[in-house]
Amino acid sequence: MASSLITALTVTTPHATTAPTPVTEGERYGLLNALAKVPDPRDPRGIRYPLSAVLAVAVCAVMAGASSFAAISDWLHDLDEHARIRLGFSDGVPAGTTMWRLLIRLDPTLLTTILAGWLHARAPQPSPTPRRYRSVIAVDGKTLRGARLGDGRQVHLLSALDTATGIVLAQVTVDTKSNEITSFAPLLDAVEKVLGTLAGVLFIADALHTQTGHADEVTARRAHLLVQVKGNQPTLFKQLKRLPWAQIPVGDRTRDHGHGRRETRTVKAVTVATPGGIGFPHAQQAVRIIRTRIVAGRTTRETAYLTVSLPAGHAPARDLQAWIRRHWHIENRLHHVRDVTFREDLHQARTDNGPAVIATLRNTAIGWHRLNGATNIARATRQANRRSHDLITAVTSSYPTTQ
Asked: Boundaries of each Transposase IS4-like domain copy (predicted)?
């Protein structure tokens, strides 16, 4: 490390940004065509109901608020004959147990990739703006508390959320004998299958993923990493904490108020000018953010340290402020909705791939409603349930159709 910290660091200042790179429009297609790509795990002999039809019903039912496999079957049986035919059932409908046995046998990671690709292709293009556009993907895990395996362990899923569209681009099941760290690379693989390339994408993750292997993996794919540093990396944490923050001017400050709370967030960022600036590979900047909250006259202060692999010219303090806050989207706009609206933690699906499959269906439903401008997912599911024919028309059309 350099003998003088202040000479090894330069204050981050805003630089001129270039126009955003146009995003190539993906193929737009209907749900049934997309689901035709899912491999059928059944024996070809004696197949009576098309897999794409069963999956289309499952997707639509969860979009309409179904929170369990039984509710998915009920939704199908409540449809009129015309609606069933439009979804691909020309000769009766399967029993609930038949649908359940088929759904739990599917590959949840592949199903997520196909459904995420379908949603991503229907997402609106980012409009050109004077500032650089960058895809920001939040990574976080969630334990399905009601889904206990035979030995008592719980199912844990690691997800990647596109914070701009609200689409879960990838979701992988964490090995019950391991943790999220070993699932990070497979998650990147799954995201890359949906986007085609990770070049220029920024991944945001919590302190668990402040791993040198993750930094190398992300950089090798020409992507970038923004992670918080805590006690699990004690040397790096000490290095960041003892930087001369008092001599570095404020890069950005925001003030918010609401629900009886006032909050001020102050961001400072410095660029590491020498390879020995801090001990984390590919780190271009060190970031400190102080959150000051006043609730009922009581003031609390929290300090967080982060590193980012983007240089100052591509990640000024104002953008860092916004990106750091976007990481909460995966908790507030995805996991919380799955728990409250779809009662995920109360659902006790535990057989085979059932827990991960139905979590994928919930992600798809939330992403669909977000793309259609919904801010209240519970209200959107109720509306979809009342207007099932409109929902079927929207998801089976070849082009985006709002409800």
From this structure: 134-365
